[in-house]
Specification:
60 residues; mainly alpha; 4 helices
Length: 60
């Protein structure tokens, strides 16, 4: 799902896209979903769009 969000924001410059993805995840994702995504990134982020990885780094 996070990669789908990244594809929808890919028209933006990378830094703006990462901020938009992080904002979407923060607003609409349950804290458990955010936690699982962060854990996935920490485990190597295999298969995640680099914009998603950048967005996760911006999450509180």
């Amino acid at each position: 799902m996070a990669n789908d969000i990244a594809r929808n924001q890919a028209y933006l410059p990378a830094d703006q896209a990462a901020e938009a993805i992080a904002g979407h995840i923060e607003r609409f994702w349950d804290p458990r979903m955010r936690s699982r995504l962060s854990g996935f990134v920490e485990a190597g982020a295999d298969g995640l769009d680099p914009l998603v990885v950048a967005a996760v780094a911006l999450l509180p």
